[in-house]
Specification:
With 339 residues, the protein is an alpha+beta fold. The protein has four helices and 16 strands. The chain has helices at residues 4-60, 73-88, 92-95, 111-126; strands at 154-159, 165-170, 174-179, 185-190, 196-201, 207-212, 217-221, 226-231, 238-243, 249-254, 258-263, 269-274, 280-285, 292-296, 301-305, 310-315. It holds the Pfam family WD40.
Length: 339
């Protein structure tokens, strides 16, 4: 027969034993958490105390603690101006009387030195501010026309000797010929595979010469608008070229630190002018000696003997790269433009 009282007592004993085990487990976990938290709090407190102690020691033994504060220049100037205004004010010296200190020891003062300082201050105040010089008159140059058509930077321009047209070369690898009077595009010449860096128009032949960063030097026949000659020899980009005014000689210069002299018709490399230690940025030719002049990024200018192919002299003392020399037609001297 089922005994309900015995069953209920057994259930109560099992429940009580379960609760005791659960409570003991929870108590152990809580003690562990409390202990870990206390350790963290104590560790943090120790670190804080150490940091505060170090900071206090640093503040106490700071190196520049005894140094006086810097002088305020603005306050000094204001004080000097105030004193000078008091000196300039009429009747100030007569109306204001110093306080009487009977029995006090008055120090000796040099009246001459005081008067000299006062006169210097007055001279500085009365002196007028310097006036700006008037700008000199210059011709009223105005922008005449803006010509657009290239798709890249325009790196070189050459004007035809008869002033009828001019040519431009750009980073879009195209040479364009424009009418000088109207500004209209006449011809576009393609053939370079990189930026066109130099152009020259022959005054005695219907030729246009071009050079570029593709190491190519080309001769264009303007009657047929096509390339008729190539000049090979440069090992890197060609940055500048020039034509001799009296003989059929072409000069080129480039990034390989050399300038080359070419026979215009036979394409023969007559001379290779070596001596620069950096890129030769420009080359010029003239009928009188020195017939060849080069400027380089090594901050030097060299004058060359065209017949011998040797350097005559080297001009130095420039601080930056020589970019664009110019030769007036009436003198052997030339001006220099720098980067």
């Amino acid at each position: 027969m089922f005994n309900f009282e015995v069953y209920s007592s057994l259930c109560d004993d099992a429940f009580n034993s379960f609760n005791i085990k659960t409570l003991s487990t929870c108590k152990q976990q809580w003690q562990h958490i409390k202990k870990s938290r206390m350790e963290e709090v104590q560790r943090h407190s120790v670190h804080t105390l150490v940091f505060r102690s170090l900071k206090r020691s640093h503040d106490m033994f700071l190196a520049n603690q005894g140094v006086l504060p810097p002088v305020d220049e603005t306050a000094e100037k204001n004080q000097e101006s105030h004193q000078s205004q008091r000196l300039l004010r009429p009747g100030t010296a007569e109306t204001e009387q110093p306080p009487s200190n009977e029995g006090a020891v008055v120090p000796y003062t040099d009246n001459a030195a005081t008067s000299r300082n006062t006169s210097n201050q007055l001279a500085n105040i009365i002196k007028k501010a310097p006036t700006m010089p008037k700008p000199k008159w210059h011709p009223p140059w105005k922008l005449y026309r803006v010509i657009a058509g290239h798709l890249g930077w325009v790196r070189c321009v050459a004007v035809e000797p008869g002033n009828e047209w001019f040519a431009t070369g750009a980073a879009d690898r195209i040479i364009k010929i424009w009418d000088l009077a109207s500004g209209q595009l006449k011809v576009s010449l393609t053939g370079h595979v990189s930026t066109v860096r130099g152009l020259a128009v022959s005054a005695r032949h219907p030729y246009l010469f071009s050079c570029g960063e593709d190491r190519q030097v080309k001769c264009w026949d303007l009657e047929y608008n096509k390339v008729i000659r190539h000049y090979h020899g440069h090992l890197s980009a060609v940055y500048s070229l020039a034509l001799h005014p009296t003989i059929d000689v072409l000069l080129t210069a480039g990034r390989d630190s050399t300038a080359r002299v070419w026979d215009m018709r036979t394409k023969a490399n007559i001379h290779t002018l070596t001596g620069h230690t950096h890129t030769v940025s420009t080359v010029m030719a003239q009928a009188s000696e020195p017939q060849v002049i080069t400027g380089s990024h090594d901050c030097t200018i060299r004058l060359w003997d065209l017949a011998a192919g040797k350097s005559i002299c080297t001009l130095t003392n420039h601080k930056k790269s020589v970019q664009r020399p110019s030769l007036p037609s009436y003198t052997l001297f030339f001006e220099l433009c720098f980067q």
